[in-house]
Amino acid sequence: MLSHKAFAQGFKLLASAAEINQFPREQAGEIAFAGRSNCGKSSLINALLNTRSCSRTSQSPGRTQTINFFAIGRGLEQVVLVDFPGYGYARAPHSLMRAWQALVLRYCHERKALVLLCLVIDARRGITPQDRTFVKKIGQLRCHLLAIITKIDCLPSSHREGLATQIHADLAQIANAKTTSYVETSARKHWGILEARNALIALSATKLGAKVVAKNTPKRKSFATQNDSL
Ligand SMILES: Nc1nc2c(ncn2[C@@H]2O[C@H](COP(=O)(O)OP(=O)(O)O)[C@@H](O)[C@H]2O)c(=O)[nH]1
Ligand SMILES: [Mg+2]
Predict the structure, then answer these.
(1) Domain enclosing residue 46, as ranges
(2) Is residue 229 part of a domain?
(3) Which atom of ligand 1 is nearest to the CA of 39?
(4) Between these two residues, 89 and 50, which has the higher pLDDT value?
(5) Is the pLDDT of residue 31 over 90?
(6) Lowest-confidence segment of 20-24, 25-29, 49-53, 222-226 by average pLDDT
(7) Within a domain: residue 230?
(8) Share of the chain above pLDDT 70, in %
(9) Domain of 100: which CATH number?
C-alpha cells in the first residue's frame, strides 16, 4: 500500500512504452495520469515526487510520446506511476495521435494493475472537449477517477470558488468510474500537493472492496487532511 514515505524515496523508470509489448510486468498497483498536452501533468508528477526530473516538463507540448512507468516506494509500499502522452496536441501527425490514443485506451481497458486513474485538468480551461472524448472513450472503469485540477495559482481567488463544483458536475455527466473525486493543486506554488498525495494514497488503496456507486452519480470527496480515508 502506498504511503507518504514512498513519495520521498526517489523513483525508478521501469519502461517507456510505445507499444503494448513494451509494458513492464505488472508488479504493483499502478496509478495512471492522463491529461491534455500542456495541462501541467509533468509538473504535477514532479511536484508529487518533490523532484524536477521525473516527468520531464517541457515548453513544447506533445513531447511525451510514450507511456512512461515509474516505480516509487519500496517493498509492499511500491506503486507504479504511469504517465500517458498528452492528448490534443494539434501539431502531432494524426497517425501518431491515433496510435497513442489506441495504446492508452488499451492500457485503460486491459491493465489489471490499474488501481487509480488521475485526470489532470488545467484550472484555466476546465474540462475540455478532448477530456470529454477521452473519458467517454475509456467507458467503464474498474477503478476510481481522480480529477486533479492544477495551475490554480493562475486563477484569481474569486474564480477558484465554484471551479471544482463545475468540474465535478461536468465529469458526472460523462464519467463511468466507481467514484469520482477531485483535488485542487498548483505545482508551481506547491499548493494542494499534500492533499493530492492523500488522495492517491486513499483511492489507490480502495480499489478492491470499494463501494460501487451507481453510474453517473459520482461521490464527492475532498482530501483536506493527512488522515483522510474513504
Ligand atoms: N502557473 C503555473 N504554471 C504551471 C503549473 N504547472 C505547470 N505549469 C506550466 O505549464 C506548462 C506545461 O507544463 P507541463 O508540466 O510540461 O505540462 P504537460 O504537457 O501536461 O506535461 C509549463 O510552461 C509549466 O511551467 C502550475 O501549477 N502553475
Ligand atoms: Mg509532459
Answers:
(1) 4-204
(2) no
(3) 20
(4) 50
(5) yes
(6) 222-226
(7) no
(8) 83
(9) 3.40.50.300
Which residue, chain included where needed, has cell 474569486? 158
Taking the CA of residue 58 as reference, the ligand 1 atom at the shortest distance is 16
Number of domains in the chain: 1
C-alpha of residue 94 to centroid of ligand 2, in Å: 19
Tell me which of 36, 37, 38 to substitute to probe ligand 1's pocket, judged by most ligand atoms within 8 Å of the beta carbon: 38
pLDDT tens per residue, range 177-212: 777 899 999 999 999 999 999 999 999 987 643 343
Ligand 2 (single-atom ion) residues, CB below 5 Å: 42, 64
